[in-house]
Design goal:
alpha/beta, Nucleotidyltransferase, domain 5, 5-stranded mixed sheet, 7 helices, 5 strands, 51% helix, globular
Length: 194
């Protein structure tokens, strides 16, 4: 834009992101192929204006983020809300869930998806623990979340774009990687077309 003589401020770009990115994320979610049958669940605390909140996250066995949920508490009621959202977002019931030993997960598991296998063994939940890293990196770049609304909006939209371009390069040949990358860009163009 600078090359063409168009002056754009950071604030303009931020406002464009606030306006357009949620629309793009909705379109990407509609085009999504589906998730695996094993969900790794975890929560991490986030401070917003000095108050501790919990960012709950579910990741499937391929590393795709299924759902993200922000709540002030980490109790059984919050876990049940998260599980209900998770079932809506995924469209099907998981065969297996992997969590840490937080008792709230057990309450929600028994009441909402009792048929699923619940694994709480040590190190089994590392995939969910590691899935917080991209959000934490972006959060540091933004110098923390400033409001609840921003904290809801950012992880929700970031995960849709992250799922599109997180291709697992180390798991495939260069030829397949290029093909999947090309498909991801085609999906992105469809989502951003007006």
């Amino acid at each position: 834009m600078a090359e063409r003589g168009i002056a754009v401020s950071y604030e303009s770009i931020r406002l464009w992101c606030v306006k357009f990115v949620p629309k793009y994320a909705r379109r990407l979610r509609r085009r999504h192929q589906g998730y695996g049958d094993t969900f790794h669940l975890d929560e991490v605390f986030v401070k917003i204006q000095g108050v501790r909140h919990y960012l709950w996250r579910a990741v499937d066995q391929d590393g795709e983020v299924v759902d993200v949920f922000l709540h002030r508490r980490r109790d059984g009621k919050a876990a049940k809300c998260f599980f209900k959202r998770l079932l809506r977002a995924s469209g099907n019931e998981p065969r297996r869930i992997v969590t840490d030993k937080l008792r709230s997960y057990g309450v929600a598991h028994r009441e909402l998806i009792p048929d699923a296998i619940h694994d709480t063994s040590q190190y089994a939940n590392n995939r969910a623990e590691l899935s917080h890293q991209p959000t934490r990196v972006r959060e540091r770049g933004m110098r923390r979340f400033k409001s609840i609304r921003q904290a809801h909006r950012f992880p929700d939209t970031h995960t849709a774009v992250y799922n599109l371009f997180n291709l697992g390069r180390h798991l495939m040949s260069a030829e397949h990687y290029r093909l999947f990358r090309q498909r991801a860009f085609v999906s992105w163009k469809c989502a951003t077309a007006t």
